[in-house]
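Bump. Still looking for NAD(P)H-dependent oxidoreductase structure tokens.
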Amino acid sequence: MSKKILIVVGSLRQGSYNLKIAKHIVKSNPIQAEFKIAKIDDLALYSELYDDASETPEAYTRIREDVEQADGVIFITPEYNRGTSAALKNAIDVVSRPWGQSKWNNKPCSIISSTIGTSGAISANYQVRQTLNCLNAPVMPAPEVCLFGISSSFNENDELINEIVEKILENFTQSFDRWIEKFKRDF
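Sorry for the wait, here they are.
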């Protein structure tokens, strides 16, 4: 049975390079997994008011179920002002609640960050890592993938044309496959 891997893309921008990266992973599928890209653009900002089951938005229930059903989760984050996007942080927060019912607990995760600039979105990558560590989600320690100058890696048809980035993503995905297996054995 193939693994179910959820991809959470932190950029909501139409034409997002982060979404292009996610779609490339799904299309190339180097590990023959069942990939799903999470929908987070309709998540209301987290509020404890929604912890009451009668008040829980449908979008909250959907993302929580998506995470629960996944064998592992890949986050792909942009960097805004040296941090991750509000949309991605909100999705993480929604899935971590209600108190004591976090779906992140013991869920294997990994992170890709990308930017059109030169920083590789390292700060955003570490911010997501720090948040997940706090939630007891085992985050794959390596390889760390912080892609810079990502805008030149795709052609006008949104196809990945940078062979180095392609190899990095293939290695990353294969490493994550092994991380999920290790998690299943060790935990």
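The first strand starts at residue 4 and ends at 9.

Edit: fixed formatting.
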